[in-house]
Amino acid sequence: xxxxxxxxxAYENGTxxxxxxxxxxxxxxxxxxxxxxxxGKSTFLKLIMREETPTSGEIIINGRRLTELKxxxxxxxRRDMGIVFQDFRLIPKMNVFDNVAFAMRVVGANQRYIxxxxxxxxxxxxxKEKAFCFPNELSGGEQQRVGLAxxxxxxxxxxxxxEPTGNVDPRMxxxxxxxxxxxxxxxxxxxxxxxxLFLVKKFPKxxxxxxxxxxxxxxxxxxxxxxx
Length: 228
Ligand SMILES: Nc1ncnc2c1ncn2[C@@H]1O[C@H](COP(=O)(O)OP(=O)(O)O)[C@@H](O)[C@H]1O
Ligand SMILES: [Mg+2]
Fold this sequence. Notes:
- By secondary structure, the protein is of the alpha/beta class.
- The chain has a domain of 66 residues.
- The strands form 2 sheets. The protein has a 6-stranded mixed beta sheet, with helices on both faces. Strands 2-1-4-5 form a 4-stranded antiparallel beta sheet, covered by helices on one side.
- Strand 9 and strand 10 form a beta hairpin.
- The longest helix has 16 residues.
- It is globular and about 45 Å long.
- The site of adenosine-5'-diphosphate has 12 residues, from helix 1.
- Adenosine-5'-diphosphate binds next to helix 1.
């Protein structure tokens, strides 16, 4: 589902953010990405979303070679992705219902389906009572759940979350990851950057550690590593 072959990313100012990254993430996996600040975690996700392009190497997402992807094809790539931001990025002038519905309108969903689907997703995330509240009337955890609802509503193949628990307390972090786990069990691939080690310990998932632009640990290959 996500394949990196010898991927390097240097920013225009010369910063080498990723060096020779090789990996494969299969459909249905749940992957935590960890590493200190500046390690290259966000760059890794931005390359997948095609917010950035690699300096060299090949990235293949859902069978699409990103180097060959035309500008006008990027929206189709993103349709398969649900993106959760650390700072939520809700639209302040829209209530919860409309924030979520907006994500569906953007991809041209019809009104009848929106009316059915949005309440279903809000219910799933425990936000039914908040449907007509505005973002500034919600707690951080609630806002993040709206962010999650928006990422989920179009049934993406993959959810990409860059420190989605960065602005909420540990209990809410735990709930957010529990929700992601439920979504993962229905077949959605999850990629989540976090620096909260208690989450990584509580939820035994594949763990990729990036340090100074390089993958220095990938728990998927632990067994193979020990045997050789
Ligand atoms: N747009 C950019 N231009 C120049 N350098 C950048 C840019 N974005 C990130 N970097 C640099 O690339 C490195 C990796 O950054 P990033 O991927 O954001 O790390 P992380 O998310 O792990 O904290 C850092 O040294 C950072 O300063
Ligand atoms: Mg980052």
